[in-house]
Amino acid sequence: MRRIAISVAASTMTLSLAGCGVLGATGDGASASPSKGNDITVGLLLPEKANTRYDKFDYPIIKNKVAELTGKQGKVEYANADADASQQASQMQKMIDEKVDIIMIDAVDSHAIAPEVKKAKDAGIPVIAYDRLAEGPIDAYVSFDNELVGEVQGRTLLEALGSADSSNKIVMVNGSPTDPNAKQFKQGALSELTGKVTIAATYDTTDWKPELAQTEMARAISAIGKNNIAGVYAANDGMAGGVIKALKAAGVTNLPPVTGQDAELDAVQRIVAGEQYMSVYKAYPDEAEAAAQMAVARVRSQDIQFDALTQDKVDSPTTKAIPSKLIQPVALTKGNIKSTVLADGIYTVADICTPKYKAACTALGLK
Q: What is the pLDDT of residue 244?
């Protein structure tokens, strides 16, 4: 799988189109000749509930953006597979049977969903891979630059350690082997860590389950020694929480730096408290709104708008040069909580600074 650098021109053109109102064109003939009007049904299939972002951010943002772009006439048919690939296949088949106008899927298992993607294609229903790159004849892909996410995690972990030192022993708790993003996160992290630290234990965690991450970390502590672990690469925040529980259960009081991803509220609070060193903040509004714009433009056959939104190209194992939009991630640490999750309205100070974290928040100037 190859990764293409994001074009500045793509971002500029997208903003220009949005500013002119073209992306929200309703087919009145002024700026587009769509094959479909405002009465659009977008099928949205999200993968799991362990990560709170899907129900809390992605779905409502996509729903609201589709409504905005269609004069509140368009709707989103939503289903969450709760980490069950067979259930997601059934959910997708139901949407195909219901003849939704377009399907947006964040695959539980990117390979296993390929037959359903082909069924949708055969039924004339376009498919957009959302957040994770599904296999099969998808029409477009929107996500973050996933290798860069891993690079950011690995680089920030090295910064926390102070310097590259091969005597530093690192534990890697990677994401699910069925998620293509997890492979890219891991690849990006290894590009930063290899040769600079010793990776003493590594795990690929089924379904990203925090409880499995906790078990894996306990196993690593037993094998390496609780005082011999310099840092932990945890691929997302849920698993970072499991890792930290295992460290505490082993009696570790001076926690090593632990990475994460997704800027979940619990993780932000752990960062404030000094328990988790960093997360990766991914601007969900940017990703979700871009996906909604792509879906509406594709259904309406607004090719110029669709092309402006998808100027990156990505290969999957089954399809080459998929029109894509890749969004840049940001390392979230104590030092930039104000300029990221607070500035973007993801959380408020009140959300983060509950009584348990009030003193730590005050020390960081969060008030």
A: 98
Question: For the chain, how big is the Rg over CA atoms in Å?
Answer: 21
Encoded tokens for 289: 């709104």
Q: Where are the beta strands (DSSP E) in 63-149?
A: 75-80, 102-105, 127-130, 140-144
What is the identity of the amino acid at 13? M
Please tell me the distance from the alpha carbon of residue 197 to that of residue 38, in angstroms, as a whole number.
Answer: 55
Do 147 and 133 touch, CB atoms closer than 8 A? Answer: no
Tell me the two tokens of residue 37. Answer: 């009007």
Give me the helix-helix angle, 237-249 and 265-273, nearest 10°: 50
**pLDDT beneath 70, residues of the chain:** 1-35
Q: What SS3 state is found at 102?
A: strand
DSSP string, 221-286: HHHH-TTS--EEEESSHHHHHHHHHHHHHTT--SPPPB---S--HHHHHHHHHTSS--EEE--HHH
Residue tagged 């894509």 (tokens)? 324
Of 128, 89, 48, residue with least CA distance to 292: 128
Place of tokens 């609070």: 269
Measured at the CA of 178, the angle between CA 197 and CA 215, to 5 degrees, comes to: 55
Bridging pattern class, strands 279-281 and 231-234: unpaired
pLDDT of residue 220: 98
